[in-house]
Amino acid sequence: MTDNRVYLDNAATTRTDPRVVDAMVPFFTDTYGNANSLHAEGRAAHKALEDARSRVAAAINAGRPDEVLFTSGGTESDNSALIGLATAGGRAGGHIIVSAFEHHAVLEPAEWLGKHGFDISLLKPRSDGVVHPDDLRAALREGTVLVSIMHGNNELGTLQPIAELAAVAHEGGALFHTDAAQTVGKVEFDAQALGVDAASFSGHKIYGPKGTGVLFLKRGTRFAPYLMGGGQEFHKRSGTQNVPGAQGFATALEIMVAEREAETGRLTMLRDRFEAAILGRLENTYVNGIDSPRMPHITSLIVKGVEGESMLLHLDAKGIAVSTGSACSSGSLQASHVLMAIDCPQEIAHGSLRVSLGRWTTEADVDYLVDSLVPIVERLRAMSPVYEKMFGQKA
Amino acid sequence: MLYSDKVMDHFGNPHNVGVIEDADGVGEVGNPVCGDMMKITIKVTDDHLDDIKFQTLGCGAAIATSSVITEMARGMSLEDAVRITKAEIAGELDGLPPAKMHCSVLAADGLRAAVDDYLVKNGREPISGGPEHVEEDEQGQ
Ligand code: FES
What element of type H or E holds A122? Predict the structure, then answer.
C-alpha cells in the first residue's frame, strides 16, 4: 500500500514502524507467558511488561512506573479516565468541564455521565483554536470535580496550555485529565511538569501498534476501575496484559522521543513549505490556527467554495490520502464539531481539508500534493454554480 | 461509506458540465441538509430536452448524480423528465450509500425546477412538484 501512495493522514493513524514490529515479535513467539503466572514463562512476560512500563514512565517523566497503565487504546484510556475519575469512591454527581472540541472518546463518556447524575459543561475554545485559562477559570464552579482538555487538537493541530489549565483546575479543587493521543512524542510531554492527574495516549498515532494505549494516572488519584476482573494493572485495569503491545508502545514512544527534535524541525519545514505554496497558489484559502502554537505535522486548510469530500476523492484518485471535516463526508451529515466549536461557519467548514504529515513524508510528497490540489480546486470551483457569485471572480 | 465504480466514474469524469448560455430553462436548487448547490440549464425543442448541462458544488454523490441525470434526461419529453425519481438515479449509479440518497434528490429537483422554469417562462403551467420533492419548497429553499 505504501508504494505509489502519498499518505498524508497521519493524524488518523500511522504506519507501524518496522523497528517497532521487530521489537514486538519475540513477545508473541518466545516470551508468550501470562504476566500474572508464577512460573518461568509468566515471570519472563512480567519482566518484559514491567520493562515496557518503566520505559514509558521515563519517556513521559511520570513520577513512578506504576502511574503507567496499559490499555487497549486512546478510546479506552479516555473513557476510563472520564468515568473512573468522576465516579471514584462511589461519587454519583458533580460538575464536569470538557472542552467542546474534544475527541468523541471524551465527549461521549461525558455525555453519558451527564445522563447519570453529573452536570456537564462544554467549554468553547476561542477562534484561534485554543482553550484559554481565563475561560476555564470562569467555567469552574463550587462542586467542579473534573476537567478534561486535550493537549493538541486532532483536526486543527493547535496546542493547549495544559500546565496553566491544570493549575487553574486544581485551584478550583478539580482533577485534570488531558487527552494527549495526538501530541505525545511529537511535542514534549512531561507529566510532572504539566501537573496533570491523568493523561491518555494511543500507540497507533506514534507509529506503534493499533489496539495499544496508556493511561497515565498520578499516584494517589482516586479511580474507579472501568474494566473489572482479574485485578491486573494494580487493580485499575483488568485483563491479561498485551505484552507485545506494551513493548511495541514503549519502543514506539522511545523512538518518538529520541528523534523528536530533528523530526519537529523537518516536519515544521515541510508543513510551512506546503502552507506557503498552497496559500500562494490558491485564492480564498486559509489555515486554521496558523498563528497559534501548533503541532508540527497538521495543517487544517480551508478552501472556500469547494466541498471537502470531492477534494478528498480527487486526491485519492491521484494517490494521496487526506481527510476532511465537511458535513458531506460524515455519516451524520454534520460538519466537524471541532470546526463548529471555533465558530467556523458551516459553508466554510464545507471546504476543510486536513493534511497530516508523518515520518516518511518527503518534500517531493508535499510538492506533489500542492501540484495535484491546485488544479483539482480550480476544476471544482469552475464546476460550482456559486463560486463566481460568492467571490466575484472566476476560479 | 463506499461508492460504486459507476459513481466514481461519473464523479471523476462528469458529463455535461457547464452552463447553456441561451438556456430555455434554468433550475437552481440548494440542499438544506449539507449546504450543497446545483444549477441545471436546459434547451427544449418540441417539449423534449435537447441539451442539458449542470454545475454542482457538493460531494462525490452530488456530482455523480448531477452528471448521470443529464445523461438520463437528454432526449426525454418534459413529462418524463420530471418523473425521474431519486431511486432511478441511484439505480443508474448501481446504488448510493443511504446517507447519500438526499444528493440524488438534489439532482432530480434541479431538473424539475429547470423544466418548470421553461414552462412558466412560456406562459404554461408548471408540471413538477410531486410529493417526493415538496419538502424543499416548504423549507423555503
Ligand atoms: S450533497 Fe452533501 S452529502 Fe452529497
Answer: strand A118-123
Distance from CA of B58 to the nearest CA of A (A): 5
Q: Which among A317, A332, A384 has CB closest to B57?
A: A384
B96 ligand 1 Cβ < 6 A: no
3-state helix, strand, coil in chain B (%, to 5): 45, 20, 35
Residue spans of beta strands (DSSP E) within A344-394:
352-356
CB atoms within 10 A of CB A264: 16
Closest CA to A148 of A117, A113, A178: A178
- From the CA atom positions of chain B, what is the Rg in Å? 14
**A83 is written with which cell numbers?**
468515568
What is the 8-class DSSP label of residue A124? P
Q: Does B85 touch chain A (CB under 8 A)?
A: no
CA-proximal residue: ligand 1, atom 2 (nearest)? A328
- Fold of the domain spanning A6-12+260-391: Aspartate Aminotransferase, domain 1 (3.90.1150)
- Contacts with B96 from chain A: Cβ below 8 Å: none
Query: What ipTM describes this predicted complex?
Result: 0.89
| Helix then strand then coil, % of chain A, to nearest 5 | 45, 15, 40
Nearest-angstrom CA–CA distance, A132 and A144:
18
Parallel, antiparallel or unpaired: strands A213-217 and A198-202: antiparallel
What residues does each domain of chain A span? 6-12+260-391, 18-255
What residues are paired with A68 via a beta bridge? A216
CATH fold label, A18-255:
Aspartate Aminotransferase; domain 2 (3.40.640)
Alpha-carbon gap, residue A82 to A198, rounded angstroms: 9
Tens place of pLDDT per residue across chain A (395 aa): 556 899 999 999 999 999 999 999 999 999 999 999 999 999 999 999 999 999 999 999 999 999 999 999 999 999 999 999 999 999 999 999 999 999 999 999 999 999 999 999 999 999 999 999 999 999 999 999 999 999 999 999 999 999 999 999 999 999 999 999 999 999 999 999 999 999 999 999 999 999 999 999 999 999 999 999 999 999 999 999 999 999 999 999 999 999 999 999 999 999 999 999 999 999 999 999 999 999 999 999 999 999 999 999 999 999 999 999 888 887 778 889 999 999 988 888 889 999 999 999 999 999 999 999 999 999 999 999 988 888 876 55
Instruction: Count the Cβ atoms, other than its own, within 10 Å of residue A268.
Output: 15
